[in-house]
Amino acid sequence: MSTRQDAERGRTEPLMVADFAPSDMPDQQGRTVLITGANGGIGLGVARALAAQGARVLLACRNPDLGDLALQRVREVSGDGVEPVLIPLDLADLASVRAAAEQVGEHTDTVDVLINNAGVMATPHSYTRDGFEKQLGTNHLGHFAFTGRVLPLLLKTPGSRVVTVASVAHHGGELKLDDLHFQRRRYRKMAAYSQSKLANLLFSSELARRLERRGLPTISVGAHPGAAATDLFDPFVPGFPGLRSFARTVVGLMANDADHGGYPLLYAATMADVRNDDYLGPTKLGGLRGPVERSPRSKRAADPELARLLWKYSVQLTGVKYPELEPDSGRDAEPAPVRESNVGT
Description:
By secondary structure, this protein is of the alpha/beta class. Helix content is 39%, strand content 10%. The chain has an eight-stranded mixed sheet, sandwiched between helices.
């Protein structure tokens, strides 16, 4: 059965564990897990949960001070002789992505799980160091490049997984391949965020298809936390004293807390019944909260041609080519160059 048929079937087929919690995870001793954005929120909770089960965790973080604090918190729950590692990574800078991937290779020969978790939400219109719209550049293009550079370590590891974090916001996403960076259309924060999350899910599916076509020992899985009460919501709230704390309390009434928001990521990273191209997350209240289930995706997110084109544009923009997954010839030839400047002004 194809990955797309699997995804369609997975919308109704229940998971093996109906009300998953970290205690349901199998032992993780001997496994190496690489997590982007592991310095706080969902990423830190996932890192601690995996370390508590014996995994060696590599924390890829942009902020060195927060990264050091996170490293200490993961070290508190790590097993004897299992030392977590901090990897500096700024997904908004392709040079940093390259350096981080090289540093990962200095610490390990294999990676069992890569969790593409880091992200920004609802930022003002700005550009990454390489000239990409900030949210697409960080959430999708940075992870596309990082995954491609780490892929050789994943392919050396039988049963390895790439878990890419999307969002229920992808349902409102529209991918404009001729204006990815909002240079001709009016910039709207949430439209840009939804586009980036749609791109995450399209990337996850296209990676799954390419891995399957090559018969490689790695799977690609999407996951979403629902609505999790983390600092991602801070851009929507003015910075008055106490107001953001109050807003997080209000969001928490209908959202998961950060720990529960990480449950879909943990399921995707560890459980035996996870399939290539699954998309896991809560489905209650429109996907905002609830136990981990196989989650529906939008019509656009299920479009293999859109995913294929996004992949090709992502190669063009980042320069990361995934040679291990290149098709032989024919319909997967490179698209015409993007008709827009790739440099923000």
